[in-house]
Design goal:
Layout lengths: L5 H9 L22 E3 L6 E3 L9 H9 L2 H17 L7 H16 L15
Helix pairs in contact: 3-4
Length: 123
């Protein structure tokens, strides 16, 4: 005599017939919302902004409202150069404070300064 497996019976009750899903690849226009646009403080024109604030504080909100994705990527490269040239250790508070000051100057001040000995890479 055939004995039913209780686990299998549950599967059969949950899905008594094959389920056909109507799946298609989402297209960019499917999202129904436009990109977040900002007047970029670095480039001085209307550009696509960040998807979300980079920090959970006032500065993060200010960046979200005033900095474009392109300018944020440029800051990332500038920050990398600062870390390399000054040999910063990002886990140390002093390095974090220095980078925060440079970030403020880069976007909202007179501009971040280059190290005195900095030589741009040859192209």
């Amino acid at each position: 005599m055939f004995r039913r497996n209780p686990d299998l019976a549950f599967c059969l009750r949950a899905h008594p017939f094959p389920v056909k899903l109507n799946i298609r690849t989402p297209q960019p226009e499917d999202s129904g919302c436009m990109a977040h646009m900002v007047r970029c403080v670095k480039h001085g024109r209307e550009m696509e902004g960040l998807d979300e604030p980079p920090f959970d504080n006032e500065l993060g909100q200010k960046i979200y409202e005033n900095v474009s994705k392109q300018a944020w990527a440029e800051w990332g490269e500038h920050q990398k150069m600062l870390m390399n040239e000054y040999r910063l250790q990002p886990w140390k508070r002093e390095a974090q404070e220095f980078l925060a000051q440079q970030l403020q100057a880069y976007f909202f001040g007179e501009g971040a300064e280059l190290p005195k000995e900095y030589m741009p890479p040859a192209r």
